[in-house]
C-alpha cells in the first residue's frame, strides 16, 4: 500500500518555507515568445522586465479556457472554448466571476469570467519541462495573481471560477434537471484540462502540477482531490488554512438556500414542489432569464443572515462526487499534501468566556461539531479547552483549522505518523511574497520520498 506524504506547518501569521535557487535571468533582445499558438488560436502576451530592462519572463492574462457561461450555459458545466482567427491580446487581466461582496452590496463581477492567467520565466520558455503551480483563489478573491513568482523556475497558472449560486446552485438534489451541479468545481477541472493540453506552449510539464489554494479555495481543492474526475490532473496539493474537513458534503448542500433564492428572485413560490423535475426545470429557466446583478442582490441579503451559497454537493447522480464524503476519503488516491496553518486564524472568541470562566455549553457545541471525527476527539476537546489558560488562544481557530486537519487526516487517511515542521514568523511584508515560497517548497519536498521525521521549530 502506498503511503501518503504529509507536512503540516504552523505559523504566527505567515510563513517562509524554502527558496529554490533563483532562475537565471535571461538577457534577451528578441520577443519570439510573446506569441503562443494554442489549439484554439494564437495569443499575444507581454514581457515582464526588471526596472533595469532585464527580461525576466512572459505573462499571458485572460486566456479563455471555456465558453462564456451565459443564457443557456448558466448553471451548466463549462464547454471548451471556441477557436478564434486573429491573434488574441492577452496582456490585461479579465474581471473576476460573479460573487457577492460582503463589505457592501456593490458587485463589479460579471459572468464572462472563465479565463486563466499564465506566467512563465525565461528559463522555462527556453528549456521547458518546468514544474507548474496552479492557484485556486478563495471566494473573497475569485481570481489569483501571479506576482512574486518571477524568481522561480516555475510556470504559474491562476484561474477564475463561478461562485455562490452561479457555481453551486442546488434546487433539486436527488434528480437530474436542466442544471448541472457543482459547476464551479467543473470550471476548475476544465482549467486543469486546459493545462494538460496547452501548458507545453509555455514551457510547463503537465505531469508535474502542484495545486495551491487557501481557505475556501483550499476546501475546493481538497474536495477535488477526492473526485475520480481529477485523477491525473495534479500530483501535489498545498492547502493553506483550510481542508475538506470544514465542509459537510451531502446531496442537500445549499438546497435550502438555493430554493430561498428562487423564491426571492420570483422564480418560485414557497409551495413550489422542487422535488418534481418539471417544477425544478421551470424554476431554473426563470433563473437563467434573470440578470446576474439582480440575483446577487439577494445573495447579499443572504450573507447578512449568515446564509451562504457556495457549498459543493454529492450524490449518486453525480460523476464528480458519486458517493459520500467519508467513502470518497477512504478511497483517496495517494498524493503529496502540504498543509499550512496560522497560529491565529480567526479573531479571539471571547464569547466563550463567562465572567472569566469557560462557557461549557457553547464549548460543548463546538466540540460536538467535530465529534464525527471520533468520540476520543470530543472528550479531548472538552478537556483541553475547559482550561481558562487554554482560552487565551482562539479556540475556534485551532478547532476549525489546525486540530481539525490533523485529527481528520490521522483518522481518515490512517496515517501512523505525522511529520510536523513549525515555522513562526512575527512580521511579514506581503502574503503575495510568501506564496511563491510555498510553491517552491511543495515542488521540492514532493520530490523527496520522506519528510524530515523530527519536529522543527524556527522563529525569526
Structure description:
This protein has helices spanning 122-127, 164-168, 183-198, 216-226, 255-264, 277-289, 292-304, 325-330, 360-369, 375-385, 395-412, 431-446, and strands at 6-11, 35-37, 42-44, 46-49, 55-64, 88-89, 115-121, 130-136, 154-159, 204-214, 236-240, 336-342, 353-354, 357-358, 421-424, 456-459. By secondary structure, the protein is α/β, with parallel strands linked by helices. It has a domain at 6-252 and 313-330: 3-Layer(aba) Sandwich (Rossmann fold). The strands form four sheets. A nine-stranded mixed beta sheet has the order 1-12-11-10-8-9-7-5-4, with helices on both faces. A three-stranded mixed beta sheet has the order 2-3-6, with no helix packed on it. Helix 9 runs antiparallel to helix 10 (375-385).
SSE arrangement, N to C: EEEEEEEHEEHHEHEHHHHEEEHHHEHE
Question: Any idea what the radius of gyration is?
Answer: 23 Å
Q: Report the principal-axis shape.
A: globular
Distance between the termini: 39 Å
Q: Would you give the CATH topology of the domain at 6-252 and 313-330?
A: Rossmann fold
Oligomeric status of the shown chains?
single chain
**SS field, number of helical segments:** 12
Amino acid at each position: 500500500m502506498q503511503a501518503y506524504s504529509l507536512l503540516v506547518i504552523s505559523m504566527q501569521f505567515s510563513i517562509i518555507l524554502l527558496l529554490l535557487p533563483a532562475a537565471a535571468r535571461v538577457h534577451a533582445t528578441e520577443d519570439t515568445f510573446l506569441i503562443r499558438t494554442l489549439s484554439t488560436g494564437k495569443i499575444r502576451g507581454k514581457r515582464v522586465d526588471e526596472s533595469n530592462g532585464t527580461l525576466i519572463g512572459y505573462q499571458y492574462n485572460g486566456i479563455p479556457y471555456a465558453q462564456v457561461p451565459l443564457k443557456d450555459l448558466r448553471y451548466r458545466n463549462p464547454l471548451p472554448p471556441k477557436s478564434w482567427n486573429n491573434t488574441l491580446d492577452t496582456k490585461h487581466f479579465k474581471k473576476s466571476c460573479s460573487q457577492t461582496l460582503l463589505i457592501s452590496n456593490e458587485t463589479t463581477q460579471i459572468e464572462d469570467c472563465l479565463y486563466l492567467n499564465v506566467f512563465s520565466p525565461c528559463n522555462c520558455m527556453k528549456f521547458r519541462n518546468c514544474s507548474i503551480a496552479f492557484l485556486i483563489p478563495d471566494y473573497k478573491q475569485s481570481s489569483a495573481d501571479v506576482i512574486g513568482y518571477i524568481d522561480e523556475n516555475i510556470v504559474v497558472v491562476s484561474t477564475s471560477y463561478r461562485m455562490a449560486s452561479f457555481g453551486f446552485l442546488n434546487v433539486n438534489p436527488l434528480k437530474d434537471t436542466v442544471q448541472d451541479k457543482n459547476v464551479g468545481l467543473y470550471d476548475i477541472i476544465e482549467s486543469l484540462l486546459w493545462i494538460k493540453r496547452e501548458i507545453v506552449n509555455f514551457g510547463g510539464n503537465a505531469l508535474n502540477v502542484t495545486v495551491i489554494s487557501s481557505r475556501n479555495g483550499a476546501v475546493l481543492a481538497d474536495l477535488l482531490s477526492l473526485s475520480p474526475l481529477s485523477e491525473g490532473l495534479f500530483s501535489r496539493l498545498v492547502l493553506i488554512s483550510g481542508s475538506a474537513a470544514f465542509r459537510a458534503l451531502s446531496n442537500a448542500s445549499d438546497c435550502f438556500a438555493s430554493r430561498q433564492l428562487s423564491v426571492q428572485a420570483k422564480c418560485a413560490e414557497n409551495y413550489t414542489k422542487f422535488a418534481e423535475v418539471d417544477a425544478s426545470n421551470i424554476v431554473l429557466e426563470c433563473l437563467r432569464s434573470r440578470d446576474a446583478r439582480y440575483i446577487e442582490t439577494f445573495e447579499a441579503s443572504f450573507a447578512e443572515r449568515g446564509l451562504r451559497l457556495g457549498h459543493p454537493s454529492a450524490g449518486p447522480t453525480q460523476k464528480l462526487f458519486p458517493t459520500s464524503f467519508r467513502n470518497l476519503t477512504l478511497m483517496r488516491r495517494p498524493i503529496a499534501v502540504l498543509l499550512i496553518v496560522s497560529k491565529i486564524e480567526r479573531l479571539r472568541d471571547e464569547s466563550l468566556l463567562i465572567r472569566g470562566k469557560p462557557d461549557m455549553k457553547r464549548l460543548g457545541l463546538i466540540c460536538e461539531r467535530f465529534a464525527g471525527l471520533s468520540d476520543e476527539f470530543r472528550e479531548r476537546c472538552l478537556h483541553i479547552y475547559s482550561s481558562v489558560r487554554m482560552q487565551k488562544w482562539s479556540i475556534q481557530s485551532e478547532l476549525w483549522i489546525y486540530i481539525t486537519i490533523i485529527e481528520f487526516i490521522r483518522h481518515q487517511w490512517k496515517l501512523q505518523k505525522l511529520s510536523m515542521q513549525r515555522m513562526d514568523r512575527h512580521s511579514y511584508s506581503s502574503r503575495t511574497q510568501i506564496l511563491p515560497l510555498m510553491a517552491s517548497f511543495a515542488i521540492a519536498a514532493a520530490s523527496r520520498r520522506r519528510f524530515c521525521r523530527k519536529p522543527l521549530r524556527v522563529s525569526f
